[in-house]
Design goal:
Elements: H1 4-20, H2 28-35, H3 39-51, E1 56-58, E2 64-66, H4 69-72, H5 76-84, H6 87-90, H7 108-124, H8 131-135
Antiparallel strand pairs: 1-2
Helix pairs in contact: 1-2, 1-3, 1-5
Length: 143
């Protein structure tokens, strides 16, 4: 459903939120290990998310990535839009360019409902909301 880049971005942001909850910063090596991703790939993803203001970073020996209070309130939809664009919220379920209300694909009407529900779920899901479940091992970020 999401690109691999988007999957890593979401997992990384939730991982960073967990570490930042207590005011900590986390480095690329720890993030990559914590979400089971290649270091180079996650570094590029986080650099782009930082440029877009979704995650903060500092350089140096005590540096790393972190989320401030406002970034903890970003939704998963914000991350998806920043990485994959609006396609999942607006596009055709079969990837057709001509799909519309007046010219629907075979799954248009059902997919429209699912797409709307997915958008609502991702908007409601805030990055900082998953930290407690992770700390209590009720959810996980690695395969």
């Amino acid at each position: 459903m999401f690109s691999k880049t988007c999957e890593y971005a979401i997992r990384a942001m939730i991982f960073i939120a967990q570490k930042a909850k207590s005011g900590g910063k986390v480095g690329i090596k720890d993030i990559a290990k914590g979400i089971d991703s290649p270091e180079y790939f996650i570094a590029k993803i986080l650099q782009e998310l930082s440029r877009k203001g979704l995650v903060q970073s500092t350089k140096g020996p005590n540096g790393g990535f972190y989320l401030d209070k406002s970034a903890m309130k970003n939704s998963l939809a914000d991350i998806v839009k920043a990485v994959d664009g609006e396609g999942i919220f607006l596009g055709c379920g079969l990837g057709l360019k001509q799909c519309s209300e007046s010219h629907p694909c075979p799954i248009h009407h059902e997919f429209k409902t699912i797409r709307k529900q997915l958008g609502q779920m991702l908007e409601k899901a805030k990055v900082g909301a998953f930290t407690e479940e992770l700390e209590n091992s009720l959810t996980f970020l690695k395969r």
